[in-house]
Structures are given as C-alpha cells and as structure tokens.
Amino acid sequence: MSQTVQQIIEMILAAVPGAPFAQTVDTLKIGDPREPVTGIAVTFLATVEVIEAAIARGANFIITHEPTFYNHLDDVQWLEKDAVYTAKRRLLEDHGMAVWRFHDYLHAMRPDPTMTGMLRALNWADYQDPSNPFVCHLPPRSLETLVAEVKTALGLETVRVVGAGDACERVGILVGAPGGEWQIKVFGQGNVDVLLCGEINEWETNEYVRDALGLGLVKALVVLGHAASEEPGMREMVPWLQARVPEVPVSFVSVGEPFMWR
Amino acid sequence: MSQTVQQIIEMILAAVPGAPFAQTVDTLKIGDPREPVTGIAVTFLATVEVIEAAIARGANFIITHEPTFYNHLDDVQWLEKDAVYTAKRRLLEDHGMAVWRFHDYLHAMRPDPTMTGMLRALNWADYQDPSNPFVCHLPPRSLETLVAEVKTALGLETVRVVGAGDACERVGILVGAPGGEWQIKVFGQGNVDVLLCGEINEWETNEYVRDALGLGLVKALVVLGHAASEEPGMREMVPWLQARVPEVPVSFVSVGEPFMWR
After folding, report:
1. pLDDT digits (tens, 9 = 90+) for A36-60
2. From the CA atom positions of chain B, what is the Rg in Å?
3. A142 in reach of chain B (CB within 8 A)
4. How far apart are CA A228 and CA A44, in angstroms?
5. Interchain CB distance below 8 Å, A48 and B210
6. By C-alpha distance, which of A29, A52, A199 is closest to B213?
7. Burial label, B131 (beta-carbon count in 10 A; 0-12, 13-18, 19+)
8. Which of A97, B44, B193, B213 could form a disulfide with A92 if both were Cys (CB 3.0 to 4.6 A apart)?
9. How confident is the model at residue A108, as a pLDDT?
10. Residues 28-67 of B with CB under 8 A from A
11. Dihedral, CA atoms, B220, B225, B226, B227, nearest 10 degrees?
12. Smallest CA–CA separation between B47 and chain A, in Å?
C-alpha cells in the first residue's frame, strides 16, 4: 500500500527543525490528504503546464515552492469568478491532484536546500564562507565574467544587472524575494562586492546599489529571477524524497523561463 | 520672497481630493520646511545622481515619487550604520536639500497624473475607454507590434513579456506596483487582452498570464519597469508646478534605466 499525501507531508515535517509551525503558508492547497500517492512532481510553481506534465507522468501529488493561485496566502475568494482560476482548479480536481506548498519548511531546513542547490548549480560549494553561509569568497573576477558564468551555470537567457566591479571576490547569494532590508544588509554586514538575488522591489536594493555607485563605492547586484534562484533548491528535494519513499516515483518539473525579453 | 517648502507642499495638497490624509508615506524625508525654495527638481526617485543634478541646477527641493532610503516607509533605523545611507544623507544635509515624497497624493489626484502622463507618452489619449480609465481600446495589432511601439514611445531598451496575441485591442495600463490582485482583476473585470504594468511579484500576475495561455486563453503581460511606468506621470507635474509657482524654477530629473540587461 502506497503512502498517503498526509504521510508524505508528515515525513517531510519530521526533518524540519521546529515543525509544525503555528503560522505557515505551507498547507494543502487542493486534494485529499488520505489519497495514496501514485507519484510526486516537485516544482518551483505549479503552473498549468507543470500540472499537465505531472499528470502525464502519473503523479497525483505536486510539491510546489510558490503559490498555486497567484498570491502568497493562496486566498481564492477574490478569484471565484475568474476564468483562469476556475479552469485551473477544475484541471486539478478532474485529475484528483493534491498540491502542497513547501516554502516555509523548506527554508527552515538546515542547511537550507535552496542555498545547497544554488551552490551545487554554480559549482561554488568550496567557496562558501564558513562564517556566513550566504557569502562565497571567490578568486577575483570581473562582474562581466561573473555574470556570464552564472548565466551559463543556471541556463539563463537574460539577467538584470546594476553596478560595477573589476575584481568581484565576496559574492552574496540570497534566493527568492526576502525584501530589500535583508538584501541590503548582505552588502553592509556581509561586506559583499556583488549580491546574486532572486527578485527585488524596484525601489529598494537596485536603488541602493545605484546610490553606492554614485557615491564611488564599487558594488553590484545581479537579479536572477525568482524561479531561477529557487529551482536548484527544489531540485535538491528529488533525491531526498526518493531516498525516503523509494516505492513512489519522484521527479522534478521545471517551470522554464517565465519571461520573453523583448 | 520665495515660497517655503511647506507652502509648496500645502499648495499641492490643496489640489488633492481628501487631503491631508491621516495615513500617508508622503512626508518630508529630510530638510527644513521653513526654507525658501530656490528651485524644484521633480523625479521618480531621488538617487544620488538625481540629487547631484538637482544641486547643479540650483534646486534645494526635490519632489520624489518613490522612497529615498530603500524602503516604502523610509524607515532608517536599520540603516544607521550603513555607508551608503550615511553618505547619501550627508550629501543632502551638506547642500541643505529638502526631499518630499509625492506618492499617495499623486495617485489621489483626479485624473491620476501617472495615467495622464502614460497616455500622453504613448499618444493613446483618444483610445481611453470612457467607462474604465485604466483600459484603452486600440485598433487591433499583434503583441509584437504593440511591444515595439511601447518601447519606442517610452524609450526602453528591454521589457519583459509573457503571453501572446495576434489582435491586441483592449489594453490595460496599471503603473507602479499595485500588487497581483489589482493587476489580475484588470484581466477579469476589465476583460483586457494585454496589461501594461510597472512591476510585478513573480509569483503573481506573470504566472496568471502563463496559466491563461496554458488553458488556451489569449492574454499577455508587458512589464515595463517601475520607473518607466511612472516617470511620465511625474513629468506631468513640471508644467503643473510651473503654472502655480512661476517664480520658482521647476525641472524634471530622470532616473534613467535602472538596469543593464545582460
């Protein structure tokens, strides 16, 4: 007898320090927790294409890092008459799919798999600063070289860059969208030359770096994209789950590049 | 005798329905409200470069749409030891500059100058839907043509695009970063083919449009950038101010393109 959705969620929570949390967005968004799992699809965000790929692979359980219904809390009240929402919901229901968000608990694992995954994708694990896990100390290279390397390693077409640097050595990594205060503190307290980040608010970190440059300080920011910054972390969970539920097929479904750059 | 910073702020508020507001981010961020104004620099965001340009023009009052210190409330407690913040603050103090934020009050003006400015920049004022000021009804054109036109009109190097469209007719415009719920409602309630927006959260509107496409609906999103979407609105305030304080030189300072696209 295969494990149920609920049993797999509980198995994951058993590996998270402090879990279960009183407050978390990591809830079952749709589906029956008692359903036996035929297969798990791990993804950054359960788009319609991801759901269809999961169905095609025979999976009935999607573990997603980001929301399914276009807002952080997956509040759906305001979407009840929306054609996209109702059709997506019907697709999930018609195929008996369960979707669980794995966001707060993922970032609470030690080490955080999003950092482990990014270091693996960049092949930088040896450069991680022992005193600050969000900083890598690299042999110096120009910002241009650094950006080209990161794009190749992560398979990105275009990234957004602010700033400058002839000898980038201390590189901060802050995936996702933790907000400007966290990102800016990596420049100050982490004393980095460059920050690689997932997503920004455009009145925050990019303008901080632009001001640094205007004041004669050499700093840079590379905005990878939210999905690009966290897919490597979710990929880490595939072998992790395979080792713990060997009877269930587990696979990763990429959301691909969200944007066309025109 | 020239008008003071405070007198000019009060003159603006007199034109805003419902002003002054009990809660607003539109406060004097630095400077003496009793200071006579030698010149006004209007901008999207008071970067170090913008401040230097204002000083060079002899202006001692900057009216900015977005924050000066990298967060929506211009809270500076967490920045007190930050080298960029302290140097920027010193630059402003050394030159006796006043900086006032003009955000909530700008969007409360009727019509909202950010919409008027965008329609003027795009030369679309004749297409505005009389029943919904955030929608334009254009002669149909392909998404590709629409994007090229918008880029030329706004002087943009690169925009981010999601979706498709062979015959884009109903085009929504929502400047700034009002959040996914507002943006997504323009697709539903405004029934638009395309939304032009300033900034997104990458787990919201872009994924909604990607899902629409996955479900066979023809929708598109063009992410202009926050600055690109609101500079035309702030530009509208230059002749508006000039007409009301003819004795004070008023000029616009552009923040330029915030990003290098690599």
Report:
1. 999 999 999 999 999 999 999 999 9
2. 20
3. no
4. 9
5. yes
6. A52
7. exposed
8. A97
9. 98
10. 45, 47-49, 52, 66-67
11. -140
12. 6
Contact of A210 with chain B, judged by CB distance below 8 Å, is answered with: yes
Query: How does strand B160-163 pair with strand A260-261?
Result: antiparallel
Contact criterion met (CB < 8 Å) for B203 and A81: no
CA distance B51 to A52: 52
Give B238's DSSP letter. H
Tokens of B161: 């695009």
Q: In chain A, which residues have their Cβ closer than 8 Å to the Cβ of B185?
A: 78
Which chain A residue shows the shortest CA-CA distance from B87?
A: A215
Give the pLDDT means over successive 10-residue stretches in chain A (262 positions): 93 98 98 98 98 98 98 98 97 98 98 97 97 95 98 98 97 98 93 97 98 97 98 98 97 97 97
H or E element, residue B209: helix B205-214
Write the Ramachandran bin of A96: left for phi over 0, alpha for psi from -120 to 50, otherwise beta: left
Q: Could you tell me if B223 lies within 8 Å of chain A, comparing CB atoms?
A: yes
pTM score of the predicted model: 0.97
pLDDT digits (tens, 9 = 90+) for B184-236: 999 988 899 999 999 999 999 999 999 999 999 999 999 999 999 999 999 99
Whether B78 and A181 lie within 8 Å, measured CB to CB: yes
User: DSSP letters of chain A?
Assistant: -PPBHHHHHHHHHTTSTTPSPSS-S--EEES-TTSBPS-EEEESS--HHHHHHHHHTT--EEEESS-SSSSTT---GGGTT-HHHHHHHHHHHHTT-EEEE-SHHHHHSSS-HHHHHHHHHHT-GGGEETTEEEEEEEEEE-HHHHHHHHHHHHT-S--EEEE--SSEEEEEEE-S---HHHHHHHHHTS--SEEEES---TTSHHHHHHHHHHTT---EEEE--HHHHHHHHHHHHHHHHHHH-TTS-EEEE------EE-
Does residue B125 contact residue B33 with C-beta atoms inside 8 Å? no
Give the residue among B25, B23, B31, B28 at the shortest CA–CA distance from B10.
B28
Which residues of chain B are modeled with pLDDT < 70? 1
Cβ-Cβ contacts under 8 Å, B45 against chain A: 203, 207
List of residues 6+ apart from A192 with CB closer than 8 A: A135, A170, A171, A172, A186, A219
